[in-house]
Design a protein that fits this description.
three-stranded antiparallel β-sheet; about 30% helix
């Protein structure tokens, strides 16, 4: 189901700070696509860390009328995502969302869902369109009461150390993105989903976060 666009523009109802009043850590990583151009119409090109585009396996859940066996899989191409360290969340976040938050002087957690510019390197808040998730999607994403747990085999508490190293090695070798679900990560890395425990996934997640923070720190030193 397509998202409905919010037609009231943020610049019409909130005070927007100009680029020169944004935090210095953001300013030094942004250049206007057209020097001396109008910053409300030009793309704000990000020169900092970027999560490169990647091709990953996506699981499509079968609908109630589906009569086949199993789920449908498809390869999707993720877009490049400019990344920056968030002082509020203390981790790497999409730079266009952080710029949006600072421009409109709001908490990062209050930034709405955004449809960003077609230019992957653009972080201009004026090229981001807030979108509203339909009520039916919000209810399905956050049910009032959790559904009963399905009768599935339980994952082992902790595989042997040698197997843990093997699983982490497969995740690292495939450079699995840490922001996807555990089951999708296991399928993409060729791991039995029952062996990828929450403890192992947490360890891999923290490794990815530390690596992104190092990239951001190197960019700031430059």
């Amino acid at each position: 189901m397509a998202h409905r666009t919010i037609h009231v523009r943020y610049e019409d109802r909130l005070e927007a700070l100009p680029l020169k009043r944004l935090p210095r850590s953001l300013q030094k990583k942004i250049v206007l696509e057209v020097p001396q151009g109008d910053e409300r119409s030009c793309c704000w090109l990000w020169t900092g860390a970027v999560q490169p585009t990647r091709r990953r396996l996506h699981t499509n859940k079968a609908g109630p009328d589906y009569e086949g066996d199993g789920a449908a899989f498809a390869f999707v191409n993720d877009r490049e995502i400019p990344k920056v360290h968030s002082p509020e969340l203390r981790r790497a976040v999409p730079a266009y969302r952080q710029v949006f938050a600072d421009t409109y002087q709001m908490s990062f957690r209050d930034v709405p869902r955004l449809r960003r510019c077609c230019n992957d390197r653009c972080v201009s808040p004026y090229h981001c369109m807030p979108v509203e998730v339909p009520e039916s999607r919000r209810r399905s994403a956050a049910p009032e009461s959790p559904p009963p747990a399905p009768a599935t085999p339980e994952k082992p508490a902790r595989p042997p150390l040698a197997l843990v190293d093997e699983i982490l090695g497969k995740l690292r070798a495939k450079d699995i993105p840490h922001f996807i679900g555990m089951d999708d990560a296991a399928i993409e890395a060729g791991i039995d989903p029952l062996l990828l425990t929450s403890d192992i996934w947490k360890q891999y997640y923290l490794e990815c976060e530390a690596r992104e923070n190092e990239l951001d720190a190197d960019d700031e030193d430059d």
